Amino acid sequence: MLNEKRLVWKVKHGCTESMRRIYELYKDDLLTLANALLNDMASAEDVVHDVFVSFARNSENFKLRKSLKAYLATCVRNLAYDRIRTAKRHAEKNSGLVVEETDLNTPDHLATQKELTILLREAIEQLPFDQREIIILRLRTGLTFKQIASMQSTSVNTVQGRYRYAITKLRSLLDGEEEK
């Protein structure tokens, strides 16, 4: 937290190296979050880029209250939601429009690892959006339940409950059982 405050202070005073450091620290987690929400790596990269551009432009007025990582994740989440809502509106206007999913951009793994990765991703995509988001925020970006609750404007108990439901549903999906 102190390191984040120092980096933000330096960015406010024009230090481009500190901005680069913040980007390097958080870009992978933010890309993972955006890609998981949007299911499109190109759109995810655009979202993360737009968040950092906005952060850089508004850095003079920025006040770090909690975690910079949580703040940036919230920005990515909100912008991804905006993109999803916009896509839905366009889809409703053009009822024939279908949004395509992109292939996984996984590294060359053994065939078994690839298959497991695909199965897990498909199972996560079957989760309700609020549960999927919590799984991604908790497991991939390492945010705490408290940070997620703050980001979603809900209680910690609600976040923990959604997380438990998501884990239970993932287990049943991966074990091939139907949920009752």
List the topology elements.
Layout: H1 2-12, H2 16-38, H3 41-57, H4 68-93, H5 111-125, H6 129-140, H7 145-152, H8 156-174
Quickly give the CATH architecture of the largest domain: Orthogonal Bundle
- Can you tell me the overall shape? globular
Number of helices: 8
Sketch the major β-sheet.
Answer: none
Question: Your description of this structure?
Answer:
This protein is mainly alpha-helical and 180 residues long. The chain has 2 domains: 1-102, Rna Polymerase Sigma Factor, Chain: A; 108-180, Orthogonal Bundle (Arc Repressor Mutant, subunit A). The radius of gyration is 18 Å and the shape is globular. It contains 8 helices and no strands. 73% of the residues lie in helices and 0% in strands. Helix 3 packs across helix 4 (68-93).
